[in-house]
Predict the structure.
Amino acid sequence: MKEYILVVDDEQSLRQFLEIFLEKEGYEVDTAASLEEAEQAIGRNVYDLVLTDLRMSGEDDGLKVLRAAIQKNPSTEVVVMTAYAEHKSAVEAMKLGAYDYVDKEALNLGADCITKPFDLGQMRDFIRKAIARKETAEIRTRALREEVLETSVYEGIVGRCEAMLKIFEMIERVAPTNANVMIMGESGTGKELVAAALHSRSDRRDFPFVPINCAAIPETLMESELFGHMRGAFTGAVQQKKGLFEQAHRGTLFLDEVGELPPNMQSKLLRAIQERSFRRIGGNDDISVDVRILCASKQNLEELMKGGAFRDDLFFRLNVIQIVVPGLRERREDIPTLVRHFLTKFGEKTGKRIARIDGEAMRALLSYDFPGNVRELENILERATIIETKDVISLESLPPNVTKMGIREGASIPFYPDLADGEVVSLDEEMDRLEKTMLLKALEKTGGNKTEAAKLLNISFRSMRYRLEKHGIE
């Protein structure tokens, strides 16, 4: 199978030259003349490598192409072409994850930068090195998927559906970098667990992970919490206090519900991030820190920006990479796995031995929309474990707001067959049969369009091709 490369450059002659050169080298090549065209191509296809110019006309730049490529497929490698190796944008590119930049900062984001003018031998070597890097990453990704599918757990996060597997892959890609990450999702989806996983898989893992809920701190205390204060700085400041920025030095600071920060604190946070230093309240000395910032929000920050409630310059500093955690109703196939996890947890906590949940109760949970997401499911099962008198959770042990819903007509509920006494089945064969059936249904629904079928199944185009070949589907 040929490697698939996207070339992005607003200079037609260079774009065409690279297309001809790369095709002669044996690669499959698409081209794009602008950021818009690149984003459209990345939305349609999954590329092994994106080769992009750093500086293009207008507001287009390679950083935005880099970000779009990584967001679509964390395993995509990126090579950035620039005549401005020392330019600030080049440094930022490295922090974003382009691979092997001339400037060592470029390595921070995993992108590779080649400076113009370049010769063909140099370009050939860069491409081969990036492709080899991707192949190594894919081996690690397959191992990660196999481990999660076996255990259903990644860094304390329970889940094995495709949406969660993609989040785990994104964590693996960006955790080793210093890129700031914005984690979006509804309350109760597990955003802090994702932040903790990013810290745990990073080189900062041996240093502090410091979380703060911005919505829980009064505005009058926020500056002191973040930056600390000197003794006597204000009434009640009876001793010097280190702020969370200092506590997180060389580690990770997690700002939960960052959209709740008041405007004056947004400007002070931005300054601290830009300058990598701050002053305690009442202090005269600048304190330098090395801190990675992770943020989370259940609010639409882009809407807040439009209304002037959130600074756009702060948003772009924090939103280098974005991870969106789906609501539980969007990953119902994980509910049985989560149920088993929580029943074990609360069985041990209460000293009860809960063997399982009966079919009627499971169907009620699978049909419920969970406005409180995983946290709500956890509370429901803790309650059920406490009040259940038998070793099986029954419908009667679930709260009325769950049981009164019933099974919604047309509800998307995964199929979990019961096994008759003494019956033995091959799980691998059953899963293969189900996978083949879903592939054929998706192709039928899209008129044979593999790209659209892959989107319906929420898998990558490359994964779609692999599965079709596995089952001998033309």
